[in-house]
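Worked example 2:
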Amino acid sequence: ALHDNENPAVADAIRDHYAPRGPADAVPAAPVSVAVALADKLDTLAAFFAIGEKPTGSGDPFALRRAALGVIRIIREGGLRLPLRPLITTAMTAAALTAVANRPLDIHRHADRELVPGPEVMSSDDARQLFINELLDFITDRLVVQLRSEGARHDVLSAVLAIGRDDDIVHLLTRTDAVASLLGTEDGANLLAGYRRAANILRIEEQRDGQRYDGTVATALLEAAEESRLAFHLDMIEPDVAQLIGAENFPGAMEMLASLRHPLDAFFDRVTVNDGRPEIRRNRLRLLARVRAAMHLAADFSKLEG
């Protein structure tokens, strides 16, 4: 290309078209090279996913895992704020959409009280969303594998992903790092213990009662000072946590969540959740559900290991 007097940026993009080929290869850095390398990998992934040729087990004849890791490395090492959903949508051709829409689904329907499998054809919108979500999940699964190989807290990433797909890898990792930093503090570790205690109580009682306790906490039924203090603290921090997360101030959001530690500890020390009076018991369970919901603004902490 240089010999033919092409623009040097074009020559570099040709050279770096398939980079990185492996973990030891450098990633492209120049804008044109980055664009071409990402386009090639996303096009390859989209094409093979559309026809159902996804890696299974140890088999990956078309090196799709390598392509996904290449996308991740280019974005991570370049610090690129690059949402993947619109790029995957662009890579999805009309032929790919048709292939996904015609893929048989294992849909189970009720018929005479039995679950009967039956193939159905998806709408174009459903096919598009299935296609995008499958590919996003595949890429984020590769990110989890990469973090595990680096010795990082891959379970924290899984906890963050559990509350919703995030197609911006840099945004996702920044949020993950903030949650991991919180867990590395004394307040964070104790808060996690309190969360697990609350989540376990809710899991048992919701399963026993056949309902979730996500309703509004009745202030008039808060008898103990510790439950009133916990409810007041939740009122204070929930809007701020949501706002800080929306503004991508993840350290600030984690600091606000960490402040739950002391009122939650006091609640468990002094308050009996399963009170003999049904209305008081239900209200206290709803209060614990508020704690669970506040923590889930950042991540699903039930997904953490250890």
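Strands lie at 107-111, 114-118. The CA atoms of residues 1 and 11 lie 5 Å apart.
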